[in-house]
Amino acid sequence: MNVATNPRQLVANDDGEPALVSEFLAADRREPVVHFTGVAKKFGTQTILDKVDLTLRQGEFVALLGASGSGKTTLLRILAGLDQANEGDLRVAPNRSVVFQEHRLLPFRRAWRNVLLGTRFGRNARAVAEKALAEVGLAAKANSWPKHLSGGEAQRVALARALVRAPALLLLDEPFAALDALTRIRMHALVEALWAEHKPAVLIVTHDVDEAILLADRILVLKDGRFSLDIDVSPALVRNRKAQEDAAEDVNHLKHRLLSELGVSTGAQIQ
User: Based on the number of CB atoms within 10 Å of its own CB, is 180 exposed (0-12), middle (13-18) or buried (19 or more)?
Assistant: First the structure.
């Protein structure tokens, strides 16, 4: 929860009174799985990340918001080890998995074999894959070819492939953006249930403010290469956000604040 560009972000405590994030940090002894200090990334003369500091801890569910071109995916790729920063100190847990917007299943491998890509489970491999598929509701699809899966099913296979490695850090790069509205709702519930069961640190990159509020217990906004907001969703809101009537005012206030930071008028859609 350490972002140097915003060290005194206000959140609400259990009594509904403002409290500093640092007060919550004092009681947070979870192991960090990500620790960035002064991380910068440039493409030519263009600065994408401007010496950002970031800590993600075990069990956190963090949403990263930002306009197109703000550096969200670049940051995720650095976390995933798919890209390198130009400078800064980076410490990232080695056991990490990524789910992209595209499922990236190999068309010539059945679902269970796609789950096992890059792993070594020996004689128990198929049983491990089938268990992972059962966790995402696809026990009956283990032998299916990718072309016979719906978009939501293919993305669930990709999620099973990520989780079968028991990652300390799960990175989600707009994984639901290409899905229809009903499938997205189901995927939100599934991801939340799997996170509650396995407790990795999760970072989801999204353009969707509603998605961020629904899933995350912490929300970051990336703007001009820096974190302009680092908001811990208050414990009271986390408990009540599923009860829409009780949480509506708090949710609307948070949504308005995030949209304003992103430069979007209330009620408009982020492009």
Answer: exposed
